[in-house]
Design goal:
This protein has 89 residues and is mainly α. It has a domain of 53 residues. Belongs to the UQCRQ/QCR8 family.
Length: 89
Amino acid sequence: MGKVSIEAQAGERERAGMGKQPVRMKAVVYALSPFQQKVMPGLWKDLVGKINHKVSENWLSATLLLTPVIGTYTYVQQYQKEEKLAHRY
């Protein structure tokens, strides 16, 4: 009788196809306690100091990025203003 059950199990595996055997998986659920209010306390700690450090560390890159953008924006605004004034007469 034990031999029949082993053969029946083998037949079920073959019918399921290779790699299609059901596998039990455990789910992990993360939740915050309703009493836990400080989710990321270190993010806001010394925010001014962090911003100052980033600016002082990357001032050259920020200048090289922002100068052409601001210059182009200013040029376009001035050009549009002059174009409006030119069509007045």
